[in-house]
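Posting for a labmate who doesn't have an account.
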Amino acid sequence: MNMENTLTSQEIAKMIDHSLLHPTLTDQELEEECLFAAKTGVASVCIKPYHTARAFELLAGTDVLICAVIGFPHGNSTIEIKLMETEQVLEDGAQEVDMVVNLGKVLSNDWLYIEQEISQINRLTKQYNAILKVIFENDLLPNDEIKIKLCRICSKYDVAFVKTSTGYNYVKDADEKFSYKGATEHDLILMRKHSKPEVQVKAAGGVRTLDAILRARELGITRIGTKSTKQILEDAKKRFGK
């Protein structure tokens, strides 16, 4: 049986973290997008820390989760600041936290620091019955060995998700122009393979179409971060008729 034939648009919606992270997003836009999220029943709204409390109010009584980002988008804050930021968003109602790992420490091979960062933030989120997603920012990592190492650390500490990208970091090419790959199929396969089964994988960055989500689903990906939610769900309703 073709598994696609049994899918519904609501199942697709429940794979989506509706991304509301653009630097210029206004309070009015937040409210409009939260109403859209409630209507469509996405998995979560992925929001900036200062929007957490308001989003929690707007989505009270729905099954849409609040996913707040910390250390976003560069991961440069100290562990202490990341812990404070995590506690703030959890107190404000976040049920999920997306944390950008300290990229400089990753590239310095300071794995003890990275283990301390991930384990401490993960422990704090669990104290609030929340979950942690660790963002690798794969475009900025030079080889697969580093990504595999991060998958193994996240598996060691039972992090809920590993995540490809923020969608807001870019690589400067030789011609001084910026490029971005985001959630490549190569990386999704790699992260799924090297994370233990209980650790889920979130694809973010460049996932803009229904077909891209369906392909990620085939690879074992359970959550997608995207700004293209409206078009994706319209296409899902047309294709699946439900």
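Reply:
Got it, the structure tokens are right above this. The chain has one domain: 3-240.
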